Amino acid sequence: MVANAPDRFAGVCLVDHADATARETLDELAQSSTCQGIRWPMASDVDNLDLVAATLERGLIVVAYFPESVAANVDALASLVRRHPAGRIVVSHLGNPAADDDDPLNTFREAGVFDLLTAEGLIVQLSGMEMTTVFPHRELHPLVGAMFETVGADRLTWGSNFPVVGTPEDYQAELQLLLDGGLPIPAGAIPAVAGGTALRIWFAGE
Fold first, then answer.
1. What is the 3-state secondary structure (H, E, C) of the chain?
2. Quick one: average pLDDT of 176-194?
3. What pLDDT is stored for residue 204 in this prediction?
4. What pTM did the predictor assign?
5. Can you name the residues that pair with 89 across neighbouring β-strands?
6. Which one of 8, 76, 103, 140 has the minimum C-beta count within 10 Å?
7. How many CA atoms are closer than 13 Å to the CA of 157, on its beta-carbon side?
8. Region 24-49: what's the mean pLDDT?
């Protein structure tokens, strides 16, 4: 798919961190025209930080998923930023606020997430809200607003979270929520968040 339409699709691959050939796999993917990034889980029980760093060393984008929430992994993420300040890490699903957290904004603040997000290499993906809240996700609006204030339109990008959301109509509703101004994002920033930022990050502005 990526090979047939490289101006429309970017390849994000999975690598088994427990595989003895993981580094060789990374080398192969870094040389491939159809792989632009690697999706890595980041959690206290996943021993893959050196492989995540190796991904950045090879010039690939890291798409980070935080099963325990980014708030529980600030130190690990900060170490990657320090070691690879020019690398790009996409913090998926707004950093995965926990489903049982009634105030994720405060949790993120206390954990130092917003201080960390001042690093230019960190991009926040506006996605996955349906995993913890019901449309139109009002409980997460304060977090969305704070994320935008911290990273701006240049480092905030919408994502569909396909195939988790549900029906085609559900995906359209999630995107329309952004396009119609239903989230605390300024109108002038919406085109960038809805696609312009992703175009620049994944397709070098093509």
1. CCCCCCCCCCCEECCCCCCCCHHHHHHHHHCCCCCCEEEEECCCCCCCHHHHHHHHHCCCEEEEECCCCHHHCHHHHHHHHHHCCCCCEEEHHHHCCCCCCCCHHHHHHHHCHHHHCCCCCEEEEECCHHHCCCCCCHHHHHHHHHHHHHHCHHHEEECCCCCCCCCHHHHHHHHHHHHCCCCCCCHHHHHHHHHHHHHHHHHCCC
2. 98
3. 78
4. 0.96
5. 62, 122
6. 8
7. 19
8. 97
Selection from 55, 56, 116, 113 nearest residue 86 by Cα: 56
Please tell me the predicted confidence (pLDDT) of residue 186. 98
Count of Cβ atoms closer than 10 Å to residue 168 Cβ: 9
pLDDT of residue 206: 45
Q: What would the two tokens of residue 197 be?
A: 């930022």
- Predicted confidence at residue 101, as pLDDT, reads 96
- Chain segment 54-95, per-residue pLDDT in tens: 999 999 999 999 999 999 999 999 999 999 999 999 999 999
Distance of alpha carbon 1 from alpha carbon 16, whole angstroms: 22
Q: Return the structure tokens found at 31.
A: 């040389």
Could you identify the residue written with the tokens 């961190």? 17
The single-letter code of the amino acid at 125 is: Q
The answer to whether the CB of 77 falls within 8 A of the CB of 41 is: no
In total, the chain counts a number of residues equal to: 206
29's tokens: 């993917």
Four-residue CA torsion sign, 105, 195, 176, 39: negative
pLDDT of residue 49: 97
